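hey so i finaly got around to running the thing on Sugar ABC transporter substrate-binding protein from Rubellimicrobium roseum. pasting the sequence first so u can double check i didnt mess up the copy paste, my clipboard has been acting weird all day
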Amino acid sequence: MSTFIRDFIEREKMNRRNFLLASAAGMGSLVIPSAFGFDRARAQLVDPQIAWSYRDRASPYWLAIVSGGETFVESIGRPRDSLVNLINEGSSEKSLADIVSFLQATGGNCAIACDANDSPNARPIVEAVAAAGAYISTIWNKTDDLHPWDFGDNYVSHMTWSDLKPSEDLARALFDAMGGEGGVVHIGGIPANNPAIERLQGLRNALVDYPNIELLDAQPGDWDTQKAADVMSQFLTRYGDQIKGVHCANDVMAYGALEAMRAEGISGIPVTAYDGNPEAVDLVMKGDLLGTCFTNPHWGGGITAALAYHAAIGTFKPSEEPPEHREFYGPTILITQADAENFKKEFIDATPTYDWTDFWGPTNGQIQYPASN
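ok and heres what it spat out for the 3d tokens, dont ask me to read them lol
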């Protein structure tokens, strides 16, 4: 196995340690003023600053997201480093505080692309942005009762990915690799995250057709490699050779699972992942991972920033768009050993060129909610 997994874990540890030191110094504290000082919502902005609010730089997924955002700002004649990075390190409190500070610093003359870190955090972020007369597009995490059209034009759009079917397909491939029987464990994301919920449910959906597969345990790894390694070590202690397969909710947690098994001298247990990061695709090609799922984060990062920016300057008016242009699913591609090499050539060895004004080209339709919503 490549040593990159151990190097990756060390980088994550260092990033986490730096964040904790910053928080101890008061940099992560949340101070929200009672009023933003804005008394009007502007129809359009002039030369707004652009920011991406996201989790961390340790993850190849978020690096791809930001790379897309930087490519977009280049397309409008700005330098890549003009994109403001608001890195929350997995803290919803810091996510909101950083956005409030950015709104104050720019006087609301800004466009923000954002993953709120967890679903409940999306509402206060959106409310702060709308109150400031700024514009925001979100991805992945929001509650089902929060909708862009409830905020006029300022909440431009929300994109998520329909993880149920891809996660179910990966689970079926995993169960087939297990010979249709034995115990499986699941390492999930932050429990309140929409993708974490759907990826576990996809696994459960697949279990219906595999009566001889038993879900031994499902525990959160919080999208973190080291925590996933710890969870996998606990699974190995508790269940031992009952474990015949591992279903992970993202790539970097799969790295942790592989490292935990390597430390115990265990090999040959099939593992699935999610995100389609370059390292994960290499592991699929080598056979260390059974499969992963690509959500095209480069495009997602660029188009989310593009939507917020173009709405802010008045290129289009969000409130005049149909619902499927306000809430929509992003693209997904399943990657197995059979197609990993071709995928790598198309999406990793070469970055496709995108038209950042084709806002909804690769999307997969309007987000669907449970009937109660």
